[in-house]
Write a structure and sequence with these properties.
Layout: H1 2-23, H2 29-67, H3 72-91, E1 97-98, E2 101-102, H4 104-135, H5 141-156, H6 159-164, H7 168-203
Helix pairs in contact: 2-3, 5-7
């Protein structure tokens, strides 16, 4: 039983990881066919994972509604929204419009989901503005440099700023395309090295948290 729960998943992970890593460097039709087959299987597994996630979501919120926990009304709204959208979507065959006219599913998407997304992004704008205010206070030389660069970029992105300071457009482009690009490359290199290191740890069984029991 321990072999099936621990050793076998680790063995499958190691073999699959090594084979797919080697596949990237083998330009052979059989290798490309392997990648195509594995991609299809990933889509199938992703579908089952989606069903499992939705089932778990319904179970968690059903427990909150049954126990009348704090915020259970929001769980009820989630239930009504998800079930209603699924029913409407199945009724209309997943089509948003027919002959240029919105279906009920298209109406739900255009007049419910899209405004809700806009509302969420609008709320995020306040958090971004608050974080910017805290970050851009010139408490040190580095913070002062960040503040000046941010002001130049913001002025160069809007017509009023370019009208007030004509050179701000060129300075903004230079900051974004030269200074910001170099920092972005450094961050991407660090993220890539971290991903490679984590991949090796997973392939060789050092990282086992995905088994549900940590490294034990």
């Amino acid at each position: 039983m321990m072999f099936l729960r621990r050793q076998l998943p680790l063995l499958i992970t190691m073999v699959t990881g090594l084979v797919m890593a080697a596949q990237y460097y083998v330009p052979h039709p059989a290798s490309e066919q392997l990648l195509t087959t594995v991609t299809k299987w990933l889509q199938i597994i992703g579908g089952f994972a989606l069903v499992l996630g939705i089932t778990s979501l319904f179970h968690v919120h059903a427990s909150k509604i049954r126990r009348k926990e704090a915020g259970w009304a929001y769980s009820l709204v989630l239930y009504v929204g998800m079930l209603g959208t699924i029913i409407v979507g199945l009724w209309n065959g997943g089509k948003e419009s027919v002959d240029g006219a919105l279906t009920s599913f298209g109406w739900v998407y255009s007049y419910t989901l899209v405004p809700l997304q806009g509302t969420m992004f609008a709320i995020l704008a306040f958090f971004i503005a608050s974080a910017a205010y805290r970050s851009f206070r010139a408490r040190s030389r580095e913070a002062a440099v960040l503040l000046v660069a941010a002001v130049i970029v913001m002025m160069g992105r809007v017509p009023l700023g370019e009208y007030m300071l004509p050179i701000s457009g060129d300075l903004s482009s230079w900051i974004l395309n030269v200074l910001n690009a170099s920092v972005r490359r450094a961050i991407l290199i660090g993220v890539s090295l971290g991903a490679v290191a984590l991949s090796f740890k997973i392939i060789f069984g050092v990282e086992r948290s995905y088994l549900g029991g940590g490294k034990e």
